[in-house]
Amino acid sequence: MAATQLTASPVTVSARSLASLEGLRASSVKFSSLKPGTLRQNQFRRFVVRAASVVAPKYTTIKPLGDRLLVKIKEAEEKTLGGILLPSTAQSKPQGGEVVAVGEGRTIGKNKIDITVPTGAQIIYSKYAGTEVEFNDVKHLILKEDDIVGILETDDIKDLKPLNDRVFIKVAEAEEKTAGGLLLTETTKEKPSIGTVIAVGPGSLDEEGSVTPLPISTGSTVLYSKYAGNDFKGKDGSNYIALRASDVMAILS
Question: Would you indicate the residue range of the signal peptide (predicted)?
Fold first, then answer.
């Protein structure tokens, strides 16, 4: 079978000048319609697609404002626990990092609310939180304090200390058999939505900025919304989930 060669005309750059290519956005590069015989490989060697906003080298610091924090993103795991090297497509997106700078806080009602997370803290944040930036060739994330799930004081997720109105739950084991005794595979096991509360945050803020304690205590068995929160796996293989207290539907006894 004859091979079909797809080629493209030269790239058109709409940046104001070539000197500004450092902060080039995806919208400023255009590819015109495909034409035969015009594409050369060396035309694309200098163009890199970036998911993060790139901060130019002339800027030496980033100071977050309000209730925002600057977090240095933890690098993705390149190997499994068994030592198998993972391709980039199979590496899980990190949800943790180190706080390197914090804003001045925010005002609710008449009260000034300071950020409670200190610099240097290792944190876990919501999966799709914040804005990613590349600063000094290192990936960072600018996010709000409310996007932080909790502080990690050890290297095991089971020791997560939840913040604000977050609840940290150890998920109940999925049923391995049907009522009729049929053995279920991993793909057919129903995701459980019941678990035991391991830790709770201090509470949510009311309209005056005062903390309202959560009506959930550690050790409680709870029923929670099936598609809520962020899932984690501990070093012992146990499954955990961190979610907002509003996603807990009932306490079971």
Answer: none
Q: What is the DSSP string of 182-218?
A: PBPPTTTSPPP-EEEEEEE-S-EE-TTS-EE--S--T
pTM over cut 0.70: no
C-beta pairs of 227-232 under 8 Å, 24+ apart in sequence: 230/95, 230/124, 230/126, 230/127, 230/149, 232/124, 232/157, 232/160
Structure-model confidence comparison of residues 22 and 202, the more confident one: 202
Mean pLDDT rounded to a whole number for the chain: 76
Output the CA torsion sign for 145, 147, 148, 149.
positive
- The H or E element containing residue 232 is strand 230-233
Report the candidate in 25, 134, 165 with the shortest Cα–Cα distance to residue 70.
Answer: 134
